[in-house]
Amino acid sequence: MPRKKVNEDARLLQEALETAEDLFAYGVLSKPNLAKVRVLCEVPPDYSPEHVVKIRTKVAKMSQSVFATFLNVSVSTVQKWESPRAEKHPSGAAAKLLQIVEAKGVEALIA
Question: Fewer beta carbons within 10 Å, N or C terminal of the chain?
Answer without folding.
Answer: C
